[in-house]
Amino acid sequence: MSTTKMYTVAGVSTSNGKTKVRFANDYVGRFKILTKNGHTDVNIIELPDSMSKGDVCKFLSTHDKFQDEASQSAIAEFVVRNVKGFKESATVTPDAALVKEEAEADLTVEAETVEA
Fold this sequence. Notes:
This protein has a three-stranded antiparallel beta sheet, sandwiched between helices. β1 and β2 form a beta hairpin. The chain has a domain of about 80 residues. It is an alpha+beta fold. The radius of gyration is 22 Å and the shape is globular.
C-alpha cells in the first residue's frame, strides 16, 4: 500500500540562480532554513488544506503570488519531472503531407527569387 505525503506549506525559492518548488509542514521552520541556507526570493504560503505535491502544484500555478515567470517555470518543471500520470497537452504531431507541402512552397519562392 502506497502512502502519499501531505503538505500544509508550499512555495518557491531561488538557490544558486535556480528557482524550485518547496514543500513543508511548518511555515516558520521552513522559512528560517531556506533563508539560513542562502535562498533568495523565498515565497512560501500556508495552504488552505493538506495537499499532495500534485495538488499543491495545481494550487500554486493559479495563486496570485506565483504568477511571475520564475515561479510558473519552476512549478511546470516540477510537474513534468515528478507528478505521475502527467502528459503534456501541448504535444503536437505535424502532418507529414503538410510539412512537405510547406517545404516545397519555400523552395518555389527561393527559385523564383533567384531567376529574377
